[in-house]
Amino acid sequence: MEGIPSKMRNLKMNLMLGKLYRISRNNRAAAICYKECLRQCPYVFEAIAALAEMGLSSKEFSLLFAQAPNRGGKPPGDFLDAQRWWNRYVEAQCCIASHDYKGGLDIYLELMQRFPNNVHILLEIAKVETIIGKNEEAIMNFEKARLIDPNIMTYMDEYAILLKLKSDYTKLNKLVHDMLHIDPARPETCIALAAFWERKDERKALTYAEKSLRVDDRHITGYIMKGNLHLSLNRPDLAVTDFRGAQELRADLRSYQGLVRAYLALSKCKDALFTAREAMKVMHQSAKALKLVGDVHAISSSGREKARKFYESAIRLEPGFLGAALALADLHVAEGRNKEAVLLLERYLRQWADDSLHIKLAQVFAATSLLSDALSHYQSALRINPHNEAAKKGLERLEKQMKGVDPDAPEDEDENEADDVDGDQDDAELL
């Protein structure tokens, strides 16, 4: 490819060469090729995404677009209108690349008003919502995209992970089945399979996550899934490598969160704090990054006061951030302030009917022997989300407590055999 003179390269050649340079970590040469792509045609999605991730500003993009010929033959008014919306799309890409997720999401929502039912924009909105923890909204938008195009594969691994987090295994099973029929060789399919198997066989799930990276070693979701599985398998040392791999390609909130969890599991509190602070610097005005710093401080009793301040700052910045509210409630409980924890959670419940809030309240009530109140909240959580595994396990534990049975006593072998039968049934369903 390098043997072809630059003036003789067409759009496809420049795009391929840019991709090859980027894979070989020669970002400077890659940027030159991608810029040439946009001079030839300003509507190359891959080039725009790559240059945004390399730090190109929206103003620099505008200068490149000005050098591109107008081959559409459109009237000036139509061309200017199209160009204005295209510039807004580029601004959104730049926002996301610089971790301004709120700014990027706002622009995408604006574009969605202008171009309703556009699958690409729907998927981009859902991806950003996934990163910032708006899981229900993301699930809804992924489902909308699948209704418009049932064969879509882009970001479907992200959708699979969200369904797994929600414990909606019926929809996850259907999604995996569809993806296997559409294209079993895609890395997204491997990640969806990893999400499916994680509940029953984490090691099998790990083999699928590894397979996704053999298919495409630049698939960021593969590194994040692999890192989370290594954490579940008590291998935080390997998880650090996985999350670092994701960050080398493109750092986002989830890779920072994974790194912090891995370092804390390794008792490397200084590394965890450095990583959390780095996330806070990179993601300005991010409640999630503030909460991450609070999580590190909350590990030690001497750091709880600092943790409280970070959690409260996160809540002030984003009042609807339930993760910070739940963490602050945990902090209250750890310091024996159960009443404050209950008041905080009940205040949030008046505004947000969320299953995680009910579960946390149930746990606090169960810890203070208010078992009937705990029962009520576990039942409320299951009414909101019948698939919630934490609520099911909590309710099962609570029922044992109410019967005077030790909830930590080992289960009978017959029950374990029944679990194995359930696992076999799941295998048959997928096949």
Automatic annotation (TrEMBL):
TPR repeats lie at residues 355-388. Signal peptide: none annotated. Keywords: TPR repeat. One of its GO terms (cellular component) is anaphase-promoting complex. Pfam families: TPR_19 (PF14559), TPR_8 (PF13181). Residues 394-406 have a biased composition (Basic and acidic residues). The keyword Ion transport does not apply. This is Uncharacterized protein. It comes from Aegilops tauschii subsp. strangulata. The lineage of its organism: Eukaryota, Viridiplantae, Streptophyta, Embryophyta, Tracheophyta.
